[in-house]
Write a structure and sequence with these properties.
The structure is a single chain. The mean pLDDT is 90. The protein has a 5-stranded parallel beta sheet with strand order 2-1-3-4-5, sandwiched between helices. The chain contains 13 helices and 5 strands. 56% of the residues lie in helices and 8% in strands. The chain has 2 domains: 66 residues; 165 residues, Cobalamin-binding domain (Rossmann fold). The termini are far apart. It is α/β, with parallel strands linked by helices and 288 residues long. Helix 4 packs antiparallel against helix 5 and helix 8 runs parallel beside helix 13.
């Protein structure tokens, strides 16, 4: 239990992931179709395009309908009993089922327990040196590091990136690999907490005075969250902060993201050192 609480198992998994990604990027581990024998032109993937705004509006309407039709007193009593058991002891699962039968929402049930237990917030920890170690002696990697040093000499500081996970996307291993890789390349890297809103991510970017925000998207929220982040930055007077995206993003969505303020997109199979060089050039071009 102490090991899990300390985050040690997760760090070991992320260490293994960063080591393997470096091998893939360097080409010492071959994945056919990813870093070798790639098609000149990828076939389009037939996907179902979900309108997240419409889904959200529909879900809110359903929740409002449930709350209007349920027995409010019975629901509140069930939630109060759940909170009491959380505080004094008792069968929480039974109380949660009773609350659900009284038509309490998952959010209301969670809040009833959160009032006693609080909300878990994972401690953000970053690895150092793991990705770079796999590139020891590599002239190309050293050249990119030199480019970062040259940037720092001219600008007076290193390029700074904030890696964010927004919405209900909890898949953060890829984001952690990106963070450790860019840190080893020479970027200053901040990692935001899971489940941020676009407004929270924008505020973090402003507070940390970053050059670029990297959105890691694995749960198809990019068409909703990326434009909201761009807007939040503009509202905060920080439209000079560059927004880029990476992760599982269908190519047919790229133009929509570009049209809504995203400056670069890095999909599956992206070589991280090459991406770092591209991002450095984007930062240079946008500097006054």
């Amino acid at each position: 239990t102490k090991a899990v609480a300390s985050g040690m198992p997760k760090l070991r998994i992320e260490e293994a992931a960063a080591t393997r990604q470096a091998k893939i990027d360097r080409g010492t581990e071959v994945i056919v179709g990813v870093n070798k024998y790639r098609l000149d032109k990828e076939d389009p993937i037939d996907i179902m395009d979900i309108d997240n705004d419409a889904v959200r509006t529909s879900q809110i309407a359903r929740l409002n309908g449930i709350r209007a039709s349920r027995d409010t007193a019975a629901c509140e009593a069930a939630l109060a009993e759940l909170t009491r058991r959380a505080s004094e002891g008792g069968n929480l699962l039974e109380a949660a089922i009773d609350a659900a039968r009284a038509r309490a929402s998952v959010g209301e049930i969670s809040t009833a327990m959160e009032d006693v237990f609080g909300r878990h917030r994972a401690e953000v920890k970053m690895l150092s040196g793991v990705y770079g170690a796999a590139y020891e002696g590599d002239a190309g990697f050293a050249a990119i590091q030199k480019s970062v040093e040259d940037f720092a000499e001219v600008e007076g500081r290193r390029p700074r990136m904030l890696v964010v996970k927004m919405g209900q996307d909890g898949h953060d291993r890829g984001a952690k690999v990106i963070a450790t890789a860019f840190a080893d390349i020479g970027f200053d890297v901040d990692v935001g907490p899971l489940f941020q809103t676009p407004a929270e991510a924008a505020q973090d970017a402003v507070d940390n005075d970053v050059h670029v925000i990297g959105i890691s998207s694995q749960a198809a929220g990019h068409k909703t969250l990326a434009p909201q982040l761009v807007k939040a930055l503009k509202d905060a007077g920080a439209e000079d902060i560059i927004v880029i995206c990476g992760g599982v993003i269908p190519q047919q969505d790229y133009q929509y993201l570009y049209d809504n303020g995203v400056k670069a997109i890095f999909g599956p199979g992206t070589n991280i050192p090459d991406a770092a060089q591209d991002i450095l050039e984007i930062i240079r071009k946008t500097r006054p």
